[in-house]
Structures are given as structure tokens and as C-alpha cells.
Design goal:
By secondary structure, the protein is mainly α. It has seven helices and two strands; from the N terminus they run ααααβαααβ. The chain is globular and about 55 Å long.
């Protein structure tokens, strides 16, 4: 995304800009999102009948509170907070995420839908990758200076955990037992 911002100034006035480079970045970001979703379901023993779809992936929202996470663009004054999973619903699991719906439209009919690979959809998809990485790996999922480091996004709002969700440590030298989320 940093490279894209060298050519397209980030701002709501450029949200609808589209092109081949944005399309490639949208594909990469959404593939990463799908990989994370699959990883979460797999790690929790979620059953599969061959292939998961957004009807399965949307169940991750109830387990993680993804819609509560907000992201901001670093050093972009006036750009609104990004809530990449806000409004994700089981009744419309693909189309309720506008950036993911755009990805599917472009993927399945690029000739007619290339205009959906917009800067806004790319920013939202990259924010979704960032939120999923933080949800899985903690506040600093991308180490500074490594090839996955990034300086464009910053987690602004974090899921408001309930007391029962907060880790308090193991007392008395006990051991850990993994527990799958009951989707």
C-alpha cells in the first residue's frame, strides 16, 4: 500500500480511483483474509464438507468481535476510521463486506467489474488483513524492518473484551489445555 500511496494520494476524494495495480493488491489482500479465516476455522476444528464459504467464515465474527476493530491510516489527516468488518452479517456474508464483494465481482468478471477495484476497497481489504493479524498474533503482528513490516495502518480501536474474555494467567503452576471455539 505504501507504493500505491506514492502515486495516489490517500484521501476520500480518491476513494473511487481504480486500476490494475489496485486490482492486484485487492486480490492479494483478500486472499490473505481468506487464508486467515480458513486458519481460524481449521485451528478450532470447524467441520468442512470440502470447501468453506463466507457462510462459514462469518461465524468468526461472533468469536472475535471483528466488527469492533477500527484502523486508521497513518499520517493521513481527515481520512475516516476504517471498520473493515462492521456490518458483516450472516444473512449476506459476502455482500455485507463491500471490499470483499468488490473482490468477488472483479475476480469473477474483471471486464465488467474492474471499476470495483478501487482505492477504498483496497484500503479496507488491507485493514481487514491487519485486523485479522492483530486478532491472531497480538498488537505487533508485523515486526519492524522485516519484509512484512508496514507503516501505513495503525490499530485505533480494539475489541472491547468482557472480563471473562481477559487472560489472567495460570496460577499454581497449572498447564494449558487448548479449547476450540464452539462455532
Amino acid at each position: 500500500m505504501e507504493r500505491v500511496f506514492q502515486f495516489i494520494e490517500p484521501g476520500t476524494h480518491h476513494d473511487n480511483v481504480y486500476g490494475p495495480s489496485l486490482q492486484r493488491l485487492l486480490f492479494v489482500a483478500c486472499s490473505e483474509v481468506e487464508t486467515a479465516w480458513s486458519g481460524i476455522l481449521h485451528a478450532n476444528g470447524y467441520p468442512t464438507s470440502g470447501r468453506w464459504t463466507t457462510n462459514d467464515y462469518v461465524k468468526i465474527e461472533s468469536a472475535t468481535g471483528l466488527s469492533d476493530y477500527s484502523v486508521k491510516l497513518v499520517d493521513v489527516a481527515g481520512y475516516p476510521l476504517i471498520y473493515p468488518f462492521r456490518g458483516w452479517t450472516a444473512s449476506s456474508p459476502t455482500t455485507s463486506l463491500s471490499w470483499y464483494d468488490a473482490y468477488n465481482k472483479v475476480k469473477h468478471d474483471n471486464e465488467r467489474n474492474a471499476h470495483h477495484a478501487t482505492l477504498k476497497n483496497v484500503v479496507d481489504a488491507c485493514a481487514a488483513v491487519y485486523v485479522l493479524a492483530i486478532g491472531q498474533f497480538g498488537q505487533n503482528p508485523f515486526l519492524p524492518g522485516d519484509r512484512f513490516g508496514q507503516r501505513v495502518l495503525f490499530i485505533e480501536g480494539v475489541y472491547n473484551y468482557q472480563e471473562a474474555d481477559v487472560y489472567h494467567g495460570v496460577s499454581g503452576g497449572g498447564s494449558w489445555t487448548p479449547v476450540n471455539y464452539p462455532f
